[in-house]
Amino acid sequence: LICSNTISIPLGNIVRGLNEVYSCRCVGLRFIYPVLFLDDVELTKHPRNTIGLLHSTTLMLKSMKFKPALRDSLSGRRLTSTAIWRYCRRFTLAQLHHQSKEIASSSFETKSQCIICLDKDASTIIVPCGHHVACMPKLLKSA
Fold it and tell me: Which terminus of the chain is more solvent-facing, meaning fewer CB atoms within 10 Å of its CB: N or C?
């Protein structure tokens, strides 16, 4: 797996040094920031990719609720801070609450008690900034 945080290097340049067996398996995936709010994924191909690889990658992304868009090269699309803020506002508190309940009831959650309140059911979520966590009752009080 090769990962890059740049949108200026074409996939062909990244896989150029690999032999044909490995280079045909490399597909560029660019998740548009902020990933929490945007479900668009740019799927960048190069001449050595097979139709089967592109199809299976597309199916995998769709199963993860992403919308893959096949590209021949990097689009270079960037969002301005205004556009990011607009997407963030669309993602309402109710949606965050719904997601927190799904996460709390998933098989990944082993604690049934909120790690912040310590007296309510687990409903901890990641706040849109990505750096803080808050339980839903506390978040609703502050809203």
Answer: N
